[in-house]
Design goal:
Blueprint (H helix, E strand, L loop, with lengths): L1 H8 L4 E7 L12 E2 L12 E11 L2 H4 L2 E5 L11 E5 H7 E6 L13 E11 L5 E6 L1 E5 L2 E4 L8 E8 L3 E8 L5 E5 L8 E2 L3 E5 L5 E2 L6 E9 L5 H10 L5 H9 L10 E5 L2 E7 L4 E9 L2
Parallel strand pairs: 2-5, 10-20
Antiparallel strand pairs: 1-3, 1-6, 3-4, 4-5, 7-8, 7-11, 7-19, 9-10, 11-15, 11-16, 12-13, 12-14, 12-17, 17-20, 18-19
């Protein structure tokens, strides 16, 4: 929901897919707020419906906060086709959300600087990001490692905040050295981050600290232009280097900003990274120590 608020605050609406039915239907005529009944939470006869989120207020409804939603069922629904949904209800009934980027030419005008914040965020039993970061420490170069051993079975996502248009890719590495794509993990996902904000990857899934070995390794690759990431993954797989850091350096070479030119700053368990965009990409390797 943090990313949604950031998009909305920049004038970018968010299209959602939400389960609706019950009191969301005729009973919403003339109503400013949807207040689901206990039966609604069982969702009998509910179905998916696309709508548009156009605003938010953290202090509405006794500071419970909520999103303002525009429906497509005419002016009789809600107040002139618009109504509020409390954050807690939105979290339960909404299933998908997509930011609407302004039309344009993407990042043909490349940013002059990379200004990013990245880290690992824990997720709950539903796979939702909790906001609690798994603390990292800088090991030197572009390598970061968890400050403590993480229990096997822990679920998390990669979280990245960008302050300029960019393309973000994530790769993982198995204990045998082979690599795989973590994000974009399906054809419907795009690496393009056209509006500044905070995002978690993968969107529809979470990563799990598995039972194999004592360390999980992944990389975050931030580019100022789109790349053929399956081809990059293929080159990473075939490269004979042992570590992810070495593989990235060998495969991407002069595409990467030298790690010594990046300014890192620790913030609440995550890291900020800023540098001049002297080259096309910056990369961060994250090692998760586990037991």
């Amino acid at each position: 929901m943090v990313a949604m608020k950031q998009h909305l605050s920049q004038g970018s609406p968010v299209v959602i897919g939400m389960m609706v039915g019950g009191s969301f239907m005729q009973e919403m005529e003339g109503q400013d707020l949807w207040q689901p009944t206990e039966r609604d939470y069982q969702m009998p006869g509910f179905g998916g419906h696309a709508m548009c989120v156009i605003g938010y207020d953290d202090f509405k409804f006794g500071q419970e906060g909520g999103f303002q939603i525009m429906n497509s069922w005419g002016s009789d629904w809600g107040k002139n086709g618009v109504a509020w949904v409390r954050y807690k209800d939105f979290d339960f009934f909404a299933k998908e959300a997509y930011a609407v980027y302004p039309q344009g030419e993407g990042v043909d005008v490349k940013p002059q600087r990379f200004d990013l914040r990245f880290g690992l965020v824990a997720v709950d039993a539903k796979g939702m990001a909790t906001g609690t970061m798994i603390p990292l420490k800088h090991m030197g170069g572009r390598v970061f490692r968890t400050t403590q051993v993480v229990p096997k079975g822990t679920r998390f996502k990669v979280q990245v905040t960008n302050n300029a248009e960019c393309y973000i890719y994530c790769f993982g590495q198995e204990v045998d050295g082979s690599t795989y794509v973590l994000f974009p993990n399906t054809p419907k996902h795009s690496p393009y981050c056209g509006i500044t904000g905070t995002r978690v990857f993968p969107k529809d899934q979470s990563m799990t600290v598995d039972e194999v070995g004592t360390r999980d390794v992944m990389s975050i690759l931030v580019y100022n232009q789109p790349i053929d990431f399956p081809a990059v993954d293929k080159q990473l797989k075939s490269n004979g280097a042992t570590s992810m850091d070495e593989k990235l350096a060998a495969v991407l070479g002069n595409e990467l900003v030298d790690a010594t030119q990046v300014n890192y700053s620790a913030t609440d368990g995550a890291f900020g990274a800023t540098c001049d965009a002297t080259r096309n990409a910056v990369a961060f390797v994250i090692e998760v120590e586990k037991r």
